Amino acid sequence: LFRNRLEFYAAAKVASSFPVPDLPEVAFAGRSNVGKSSLLNALTRQWGVVRTSDKPGHTRTINFFKLGTKLNLVDLPGYGFAYAKEEVKDAWEELVKEYVTTRSALQRVCLLVDTKWGMKPRDHELIGLMEKSQTKYQIVLTKTDAVPPMDVARRAMQIEENLKANRSIVQPLMIVSSRSGAGIRCLRTALAKISRF
Ligand code: GDP
């Protein structure tokens, strides 16, 4: 799947400009700095070529990419800048809320969580939305090379315990490191199952 060419094809600031759904979609969400760009790069090996900036101060949009004619990858704007203005936060919330709750093509949200820091209130907010709309999601623990293996295991257990009640929509937890490459193939395999063959 990830040998297919990655191509940027749409950016949306408002829900009315979401592209017409044509392929199954997997969206990537998480706090800013969680390692989303690095993970997308590790997964596709083409991210650097197409990536548009979502650094603080830039316009924040939902960005849509095609992996050949198999799967769409959707980059949700990172959240949790301590200094994000209220109106920026509200706009983000509305846009992401609209996307995760109404998007018919959305098959999976990969919610990235930094292994060292665990889940934060904004992550729980997003989970709350996905539960309401019954959107399938999967926690992806990132940067596992940066913490001792015991702490990775502890964090994974803590999160699984936390999400136990929502078994029907929660997909197996993934443990990855873009730096060491650990878990990347496993995540690729999981996502390939969603793609159109
Ligand atoms: P984004 O803001 O979520 O797109 O995060 P980036 O991919 O830009 O990464 C944020 C910071 O985390 C950068 O300094 C990266 O070098 C670092 N980082 C990303 N992935 C990893 C990883 O797998 N291991 C380690 N140790 N650091 C990482």
Automatic annotation (TrEMBL):
<feature type="domain" description="EngB-type G">
    <location>
        <begin position="22"/>
        <end position="197"/>
    </location>
</feature>
<protein>
    <recommendedName>
        <fullName>EngB-type G domain-containing protein</fullName>
    </recommendedName>
</protein>
<comment type="similarity">
    <text>Belongs to the TRAFAC class TrmE-Era-EngA-EngB-Septin-like GTPase superfamily. EngB GTPase family.</text>
</comment>
